[in-house]
């Protein structure tokens, strides 16, 4: 019970510290903006540890962060193998293929209003299909290795990217497009010099959305058939063995890799779309 009381005291102190930092004179400094979420995250981990230890919660229900950290440190080769199988081979390859395919189809649809009007409703329909229904079918088509997981990711990524790229290419006004024509610019000159740069905020919005969908799709697809490695495979087998520390270790690796992937895309977006109002402070 003492540990539980300590958890509440720690929460109150951390809350006061974060409020002071967020509203204090240094609130606009980069170090302060980094410190606030860092303190909040470390406080949650500490409270998690204290409450689990204080209440004697079984590891089968919820392991303490220290137990999860120990499992991570002793299972690095397994976690790395699962990361490569799921993220590099399945999620990243399917992500790149889906983006490339969506870009090509969006450019083709941009030149045909009939195709554009026909594809977008179909895209919305396919995007609404549950992954738990499409994943088993694609696993049966492409086998149990990473190729089937990449196929699931392609399906999940393709239509959100198609919608965003198509909308972005329509961002320029008729007056702007007519101005390019008065300068005798060809379609592709107008595309590369005006329409594609104007579409970048939409494209990066789709890239960021798809980065999370890709990892989710690859992990879920592994529940329906996988070799003896992969995050989804490890999670499903560890749950059956009541090894919840390994389950949380895989969840940590998945969350970390997904966050880093999203952050890299956001950094690239800041450099490419520096001119957009959303990037101004």
Automatic annotation (TrEMBL):
InterPro entries: MetI-like, MetI-like_sf. Gene3D superfamilies: MetI-like. It is found in: Cell membrane. One of its GO terms (biological process) is transmembrane transport. GO terms for cellular component: plasma membrane. Residues 84-269 form the ABC transmembrane type-1 domain. This is ABC transporter permease. SUPFAM superfamilies: MetI-like (SSF161098). Pfam families: BPD_transp_1. Keywords: Cell membrane, Membrane, Transmembrane, Transmembrane helix, Transport. It is a multi-pass membrane protein. The chain crosses the membrane at residues 31-52, 92-110, 122-144, 150-169, 202-226, 246-268. Belongs to the binding-protein-dependent transport system permease family.
